[in-house]
Write a structure and sequence with these properties.
By secondary structure, the protein is of the alpha/beta class. The protein has a domain of 91 residues: Beta Polymerase, domain 2. The protein contains 3 helices and 7 strands.
């Protein structure tokens, strides 16, 4: 099955949940409503064969609304096809449902995303930090995070 056929089936099943579809340099991206991310991902895995979540991350569009975009990179092992799913997340409600029930690998990827970007995954089975110490303040990959780290003076250049 081609990616376009999969996208057509996704649009037929979810209609208004699919907000946009784009193709660039052979890569297809589908933007969906965050409220339906689990249903969309379950359908993609069980009905359309996208059985491998290769990566999950978020993008910080500081100064724009919505501020964050969740990105799910999917792969169909049987057909060797790839599909990217995106869901916008507002800064004021930086939460989205976990897909760790769909793909087990999402467990650690979502923990990393929370740790570094501060997006909370509803119903996550283990919502602890994974990279930063438990007492770390903030989320270091956000664009508004101080480059020098918390409670430090900005770098003044090489000392002589």
């Amino acid at each position: 099955m081609s990616v376009q056929v999969a996208v057509d089936k996704l649009k037929a099943k979810f209609g208004e949940t699919v907000l946009a579809v784009s193709e660039f340099r052979g890569e297809t991206t589908v933007v969906v409503k965050k409220e339906e991310i689990v249903a969309v991902c379950t359908f993609l895995k069980l009905e359309l064969g996208f059985n491998f979540l290769t990566d999950l991350c978020s993008i910080d569009y500081l100064g724009q609304a919505p501020r964050f975009m969740m990105v799910y990179q999917l792969y169909n092992i049987g057909t060797h096809r790839r599909l990217r799913i995106k869901a916008a997340v507002e800064e004021s409600d930086a939460r989205i449902d976990t897909v760790s029930g769909v793909w087990a690998t999402a467990n650690w990827l979502e923990r990393e995303c929370y740790d570094l970007m501060g997006i909370v995954f509803n119903n996550h089975p283990d919502p602890r930090r994974i990279l930063m110490p438990d007492d770390w303040v903030g989320h270091p990959l956000r664009k508004d995070y101080p480059v020098q780290g918390p409670d430090r003076e900005p770098y003044q250049g090489r000392l002589q």
